[in-house]
Amino acid sequence: MLTPRENFLRTLRRQGFEWTPIDYWLCDSKIHDFENRYGHRDYKSFFEMDHRWVKIFEKTGSPELKAGIVNSPYFDNEELPDSTEFDVWGIGHSKGSEAAYHMTRMHHPLKGVTDADLIARYPLPSFDPKENSFMINEVKKIHNNGLAVICDLQMTIWEISWYLRSMEELIIDIMMGDEKARIILDRTTEYACQKARFYAQSGVDVLSLGDDIGTQAGPMIGMDMWEEWLKPRHKKVIDAAREVNPDILVFYHSCGHYTPFIPGLLEIGVDILNPIQPECMNFNEVHDLYGDKASFWGTLGSQQLIPFGTKEEIREEVHNRINTCGEKGGIVLGPSHLVEPEVPLDNLIAMKDATRELYKRTI
User: Fold this and answer.
1) pLDDT digits (tens, 9 = 90+) for 215-242
2) What fold does the segment set 4-57+127-356 form as a domain?
3) Residue 82: Cβ-neighbour burial (10 angstroms; 0-12, 13-18, 19+)
4) pTM of the complete model
5) Where exactly does CATH 3.20.20.210 map onto the chain?
6) Nearest CA among 96, 117, 118, 120 for reference residue 106
7) Residue 124, CB half-sphere, CA atoms under 13 Å: how many?
8) Distance CA 20, CA 333 (A)
């Protein structure tokens, strides 16, 4: 009998498995529903997840922004509602309503900035390895409990850069070959490399990267732009982690349709593709093309199947995924995004039960 960690890693390395791992992220209201039903909040143990997520503690480079004090020259081109909150990057977020869990309007501190030196001096967040020394013990504790560890380094380069600059202005900078684009992308890349090295030193099993490069209708940016501006920078981050631990698995998240980018992602060392959003990517077609080179994570629709599907429809789709991947495995099943308030808990239970109906022996 494999431990959960052994089963998880064998699955992702396509070496055979005993059961198909699953992964859920519940929004706050869904955690509240779970607690009301079961009397506790540990849904990860309840659903028998083989892994746990970890994240370093970062300090904001803009304490005045974190406190809601906006100083020139940043945010000169943004109107900030009184309810605006600021994250560790100094990016503003305002909600249309309290029901908006993670869909917020962003306010970009570097929008409209014309001075490249101001962008070069913008205070990025930081982390202190000493203050994060708990990470090594946390990873060991999770491993001692027989579980795998995945770290969160999503919004790796592209997303966090346009969150700071605004998507329109960052794309214009790139198209014009403006040094402002190189400055901001290089700075976010270097910071991501620092975090990737630290996570690898801490002993995590999976490095989770992510930058949305797809929309529901097609790619978000052109292939030439991705090849020149993003691909080599993502390779730097992956290389930084693998210089420390050559065996670390690399997970890459992008919502939307990003099939054209998959060969390039595999070329720079990505092992796991997430989420293969079924509303705009066909899992069977992607698996036929890349199932011998990559593993998959997610794949079950968050817009229709998980919130509104029947238990039998969920069971059928789960079995389809497992059978498509075959005896080698290569899939962690879950919704293609966060579990939102409208998702019935019973549908999540149906998904978990369906994975346990198709046990395979290791090969």
Assistant:
1) 999 999 999 999 999 999 999 999 999 9
2) TIM Barrel (3.20.20)
3) exposed
4) 0.95
5) 4-57+127-356
6) 96
7) 21
8) 7
